[in-house]
Amino acid sequence: MEYTIHLGDFEPFINAIKQGFIFTLTIGTTDVSLIPGITIAGAKPELTHFTPAADAEYLLLGRCRVINTVPMTPDGKPTPALITRAALRLINAGVLVVNAGSRIKPLIPHVDLQGEPGLDIIKSDALRRDVVERMVDNGLVLGENLGRSFKALIIGESIPAGTTTAMAFLVAMGYDAWHKMSSASPTNPRELKISVVKRALERSGVSKALDDPILAASKVGDPVIPAMASIAIGAARAGSHVILAGGTQMGAVLAFIKAFDKSALSRLAIATTRWLINDKSADLVGLVKEIRPIPVASSNLNFDDMPYEGLKAFEEGFVKEGVGAGGSLVAASIMGFDLGRVKMAILRDYEELLKTLRVQGM
Asked: Which end of the chain is more exposed for a tag (fewer CB within 10 A), N or C?
């Protein structure tokens, strides 16, 4: 099988994708990513603020403008944007970049929701409430317009340390997310994340479950959660089917949508990678069941036979998901491109990337 369905009825989403979709990448930053050891989505903590913009640029251009290379882990594992770009180019799908609140803005055409970067939730609230409200209003408008134009939306994300802020948001909303969030690292820094979340909840005064997702996002969340949620709600209201393309962070987006507008849930699904599903330190399906059991699918892409260690590393638990990789892979399979063709496209792009790095002397 090209992909596996873990939960629910995915058939309406398959049919919608076949009728035409757009891929939307929602980017943002949180100062939580500056905490040493919290994420490997950047060669150094201070470079994580460049990762979302660089991911967006690579997705559209095949190269980056805000940095002179592509986003890498500290030991050279490539961004999952490599996978997303290869899959979407095979399909010839349109891509729209949405800035939810990135410290570094991408130097490409994009839609700005007039949000702000998220602050360190240990030290202060993530965002002002009025900023979150403005982002949500703008996200609804954008989503409704996209929903009128496309039968399906696939929405991905790029925000280093996003699993930590997603955990904080979910716990603030009353969900048991403590041991269910994944990581870009094979050794999930779970205890560090839990410590950050506990300190953030104590600092913010959240001692019992909130029922207001805007308040939870402003207290301990990040800009990407309300941005993705509002775009999805707007598109669903306009009659489009929406696939949240990502890992355990999508639980936070799902929880926001459930609290804000339950009617959107019937047009919502999640698509991810088998690497994320196989992560024994996390539990996406269990998390979704706890919040609202919407359809969940994962691509069965495997890199075991890839000739490069940087790609084989995905099989060892590095990266796993991000930049909508799983959703783009599932879409490619639905559109008739088998995983063998997708892998060849990824391999070609990776070899081009290696050539560029050699030319730059990196």
From this structure: N
Q: Read out DSSP for 129-185?
A: HHHHHHHHHHHHHHHHHHHHH-SEEEEEEE-TTHHHHHHHHHHHTT---TTT---SS
Coil, helix or strand at residue 266? helix
User: What DSSP state is assigned to residue 115?
Assistant: -
Query: Which regions of 72-144 does DSSP assign to beta strands (E)?
Result: 94-101, 111-112
Token representation of residue 97: 């970049």
Radius of gyration of the chain (CA): 18
Structural domains of the chain in order of their starting residue, each with its CATH number: 3-353 (3.40.50.10210)
Q: Give the bridge partners for 157, in sequence order.
A: 26
Instruction: Assess contact for 155 and 228: CB atoms under 8 A.
Output: yes
Per-residue pLDDT 10s for the chain (362 aa) are 899 999 999 999 999 999 999 999 999 999 999 999 998 766 688 899 999 999 999 999 999 999 988 776 656 688 999 999 999 999 999 999 999 999 999 999 999 999 999 999 999 999 999 999 999 999 999 999 999 999 999 999 999 999 999 999 999 999 999 999 998 888 889 999 999 999 999 999 998 999 999 999 999 999 999 999 999 999 999 999 999 999 999 999 999 999 999 999 999 999 999 999 999 999 999 999 999 999 999 999 999 999 999 999 999 998 999 999 999 999 999 999 999 999 999 999 999 888 877 666 55
Partners of residue 94 on adjacent β-strands: 22
